[in-house]
Amino acid sequence: MGLRDPLYWLYERRVERELGSYDIPKHVGVILDGNRRWARTSGFANVKHGHQAGAEKIFELLGWCNEVGVQVVTLWLLSTENLSRPREELDPLLAIIEGAVRRLKDEGWRVNPMGALDLLPDATARAMKEAGSSTSDNPGLIVNVAVGYGGRREIADAVRSLLHEESAKGTTIEELAERLDLDHIAQHLYTRGQPDPDLLIRTSGEQRLSGFLLWQSAHSEFYFCDVFWPAFRKVEFLRALRSYGARNRRLGR
């Protein structure tokens, strides 16, 4: 251990220096995957230890993002599909999420809740809404917290919101269909007013987005990392930034 720490520190410094010649993404999205598998491979009988370790890792990540100048971070903590997990696992996980959201609020991060909050238990939805409302004017890094989130659900919600807004103005379906464009829908997404994610990171070795930020990720760069989320280190984050910076982003051109 004593030998590895200095070597790790030196390697981390080297990767940091390499970033000096690259652009830093403004918006980074992260699929925090592998909490349960980390718990099992670490010898824990109860997977809640993985979820708790994963929640602690969030605050390390935010510190790293602040250091390099990332402006927006989107964290996918719980999907709509995850809500069907057994109660004995879901209830402790929701309690951990509520604690993490309260800590985000207490530490002064600017929290933006994302997801189908109406599907969440009252306590979880309330914690999300309170964090969003009480930190909305905070400066600095924006932290999108996706709980009960699904990409298809987000697009459906955006279209539904758009229809309600236009109906209130007296717009007919025919009139809306005539002038509807991409910006109309984008203005009703959970991330409205924010830049689309430049870089999406998924931990645990899975190489798919599973519906994460379906609309917003049209021109995102993807980085898949084999390490489980609780074991995600700063050097893995720096490697993701280096990989992003080294790519020739054509953005459809």
TrEMBL record:
The keyword Metal-binding applies. Binds 2 magnesium ions per subunit. SUPFAM superfamilies: Undecaprenyl diphosphate synthase. It is an enzyme of class 2 (transferase). Its EC number is 2.5.1.-. PROSITE patterns: UPP_SYNTHASE. It holds the Pfam family Prenyltransf. Gene3D superfamilies: Decaprenyl diphosphate synthase-like (3.40.1180.10). GO terms for molecular function: ditrans,polycis-polyprenyl diphosphate synthase [(2E,6E)-farnesyl diphosphate specific] activity; magnesium ion binding; Z-farnesyl diphosphate synthase activity. It comes from the Bacteria. The active site is at D33, N82 (proton acceptor). Its cofactor is Mg(2+). GO terms for cellular component: plasma membrane. Mg(2+) binds at D33, E221. Substrate binds at G34, N35, R36, R37, W38, H51, S79, T80, E81, R85, R202, R208, L209, S210. Keywords: Magnesium, Metal-binding, Transferase. InterPro entries: UPP_synth-like, UPP_synth-like_CS, UPP_synth-like_sf. Belongs to the UPP synthase family. Z-FPP synthase subfamily. Homodimer. Catalyzes the condensation of isopentenyl diphosphate (IPP) with allylic pyrophosphates generating different type of terpenoids. This is Isoprenyl transferase. It comes from Murinocardiopsis flavida. The lineage of its organism: Bacteria, Bacillati, Actinomycetota, Actinomycetes, Streptosporangiales.
